[in-house]
Amino acid sequence: MKISKKALLIIGIFVFAIVLGFLISTYVQQAEDRAKVEAELAAQQAIATNLAADREDWEDKLAQAQSLLATSKAKFPNSVDSIEYDDDLFEIADDCNLDLTSLSMSKPTSKNIGAVTYSVAPCLVQVKGNVDDILDFLYAIRTGDDFNLPWSAYVKEVKISFGVQALATISLDIYAY
Predict the structure, then answer these.
(1) 121 vs 105: CA distance, rounded Å
(2) How far apart are CA 34 and CA 29, in angstroms?
(3) Which of 118, 134, 157, 177 has the highest CB neighbour number within 10 Å of its CB?
């Protein structure tokens, strides 16, 4: 069977129309996909811009917080070690049957003795009790008697006032190593 040229032309046009329709639908689909991707890209870029601004804000806040921390540290010169000294001094006073009525620490400084650098914290302590217990307290502070302390003290001055109970004001330097 022989197909006429008109039929072949109609079949060719029909196949061409189908292929052309398929290509057009593929192009339209890709154009829609591209538009969606571009819209999503624009949204992601906006988010990235916002995140960059947020990051800068957080970095600024971090810098401010670090500055505030440094300022706060300067305002509160007593180190954590001084808290440990305080605890030890209260424990020594308690073991000597004394009331530690006042304790003030100054900012620790560094002091070189030979090749060793020590942290030196001046301290003023007031204890109340009987004279024998005050002397025991002084001895315990000076020698670290019955304590395993990571520090030692140099007693600079002791003033004792007598009354119903003796009140001792003790000026000392605490050496930490």
Answers:
(1) 7
(2) 9
(3) 134
pLDDT-derived band at 8, boundaries 50, 70, 90: confident
- 136 phi/psi in degrees, rounded to 5: -60, -40
User: 63 vs 56, 119, 125, 165, CA distance in Å?
Assistant: 10, 29, 38, 53
Q: Residue 91: its pLDDT value, please?
A: 86
Separation CA 105–CA 82 (nearest Å)? 7
Token code pair at residue 103: 């304790």
Fold classified for 80-176: Alpha-Beta Plaits (3.30.70)
Q: Hey, what's the torsion of the CAs at 54, 59, 65, 70, to 10 degrees? A: -170
Residue 125 burial by Cβ neighbours in a 10 Å radius (0-12, 13-18, 19+): buried
